[in-house]
Amino acid sequence: MYDFGAATFDASIISFRDEFIQVGNHFGDNHLGEKYIDWEIVNQLLIPALLKDHKLSDYCKGNPKWLSAFAKLKYHAEEAKI
C-alpha cells in the first residue's frame, strides 16, 4: 500500500491472513511527498513539452514574469496526479 501524504511518500507491506490484516513493514520518505512529486511532474514532463513547442528563452521558475504560469502548471500537475 502506498500513500502520497502532505509531505511524505509512505509505503507499507500488508498481509491478509485468516481474515486478519497485519502491517509487516512501513517506510516514509520526506523527500518524495506530494509537493515534490508535483514539481517533478512540472520539471520533468510539462516544462520540456512546453519548451519543445514554444521558444521561451527566459522561462524558468525563478523568473517573476512566469510566476503565475508556474503556479498553474503545478496546479494542473497535482490534478493529473490525483
The structure class reads alpha+beta
**Mean pLDDT value:** 85
Number of strands: 3
Please compute the radius of gyration using only Cα atoms. Answer: 18 Å
Number of domains: 2
Q: Identify the strand order in the major beta sheet.
A: 1-2-3
Please sum up the structure shown:
This protein is α+β, with helices and mostly antiparallel strands. It is built from two helices and three strands. It folds into two domains: 1-32, no CATH class; 34-82, no CATH class.
Task: Write a structural description.
The relative contact order is 0.15. A 3-stranded antiparallel beta sheet has the order 1-2-3, with no helix packed on it. 43% of the residues lie in helices and 27% in strands. It has 2 helices and 3 strands. It is an alpha+beta fold and 82 residues long. The mean pLDDT is 85. Helix 1 packs across helix 2 (67-81). A hairpin with a 4-residue loop joins strand 1 and strand 2. The protein has 2 domains: 1-32, no CATH class; 34-82, no CATH class. It has helices at residues 34-53, 67-81, and strands at 2-4, 9-17, 20-29. The longest helix has 20 residues, at 34-53.
Tell me the layout of helices and strands.
Elements: E1 2-4, E2 9-17, E3 20-29, H1 34-53, H2 67-81
Antiparallel strand pairs: 1-2, 2-3
Helix pairs in contact: 1-2
Label this structure with key terms.
about 80 residues; 2 domains; about 25% strand; alpha+beta
